[in-house]
Amino acid sequence: MKVALVHDWLVGMRGGEAVLEAIAELYPQAELFTLVYDRNAISRPLARLKEHTSALQRLPSATRRYRHFLPFMPWAIERMDLSGFDLIVSSSHCVAKGVRKAPGAVHVSYVHAPMRYMWFRYDDYFGPGKAFWPVRLAARLLRPYLQNWDRRVSQADRVDTLVGNSRFIADRIREAYGREAEVVHPFVDLEAFRPAPAGTARRNYLMVGAFAPNKRVDLAIEAFNRLKLPLVIVGSGQDERKLRRMGGPTIDFLGSRLSRSAIADLYAKSKAFIFPGVEDFGITPLEAMASGTPVVAYAEGGVLETVTPETGVFFSEPTPESLMEAVLKIERGEVSFDPATLRARAEGFSRERFQREIKAVIERALGARTQAFSGRAALT
Predict the structure, then answer these.
(1) Distance (Å, rounded) from C-alpha 292 to C-alpha 40?
(2) Which residue did the predictor score with more confidence, 132 or 189?
(3) Interacting residues of 319 by C-beta distance below 8 A, sequence separation 6+
(4) How far apart are CA 213 and CA 242, in angstroms?
(5) Which residues contact 290 (CB under 8 A, 6 or more apart)?
(6) Residue 223 CA from chain centroid, whole number
(7) What is the architecture of the domain spanning 3-187+351-379?
(8) What is the pTM of this model?
(9) Fold identical between 3-187+351-379 and 204-347?
(10) Concatenated DSSP letters for 35-88?
């Protein structure tokens, strides 16, 4: 059986790429298809796979400016030749699931989110004040076309089985595509994150992530400026200049070049991890829990499937005041958390569990296709 793995673009290693790597371990002879590819920016297990790139790879600065090519991505992904493959597994948050399969092939798509920029996160990227007016105008004009294309290529004639990374995303798949999706949660690297020894001093709060609009780093900064409590922020991104200007004397920006071990140390020595955005799933809260650190999270999105009252505090409104009240519950000692309970919750989201569940979904899809062919053969 020839297997193709498809990913939107490969120019770094984040949560989606970690999922792809775990799937690749199940199919070591698979070939890799992606719009844009930077071998030096991805892990060894992915870099050793035979890769196929799209026409976009040949454009100047493709690995840095790939997001600017969004209008051309549907065209590029549909022209990738997967005609010789029996099984296609796509990892998609943009256009990867739009590849064409051969007759008789099986396509299982692991969906991190319906096309983020054009569906439910549109206002985060193209709302008032989020981009220059020509960009907002272009996005508004393109949105109907890209939504229609995304919905069309997500139907059963192109994708046999859709898999959401959370129940939250399964609901959004139903809303966007009119289809049901199975759910397989991603995983946390349990070896990389460990609780600190008992008695370790915990002085500050922590945020880790990209400086993108949906992360709501601005909300955390405003809340901690007013609380005058120490907040350490690890990350970088498009909103960095604006956010650094917002930061007061208790906000410490550490950038995005810290080693993994340094970040793990920050997790383990923080009072709590601050998670004010709406995420499709959210790996960083699991990293905090694996480190024995509770989570303060906005009560919406995939985080509702990982954080419990025993492992964190939720705030109900996306406002500084609501976040402040949640933090003050920790400061006042109104809530307390057991590092062992936090760690045990994270251990339920292991890599091995993910691989076992996604393989079972793929095997069911293959079995259904085999049964369908057998049924048609019997009729003839």
Answers:
(1) 33
(2) 189
(3) 219
(4) 11
(5) 188, 189, 190, 193, 194, 267, 342, 343, 346, 347
(6) 25
(7) 3-Layer(aba) Sandwich (3.40)
(8) 0.89
(9) yes
(10) SSB-GGGS-HHHHTSEEEE-GGGGSTTHHHHGGGGGGGHHHHHHTS--TT-SEE
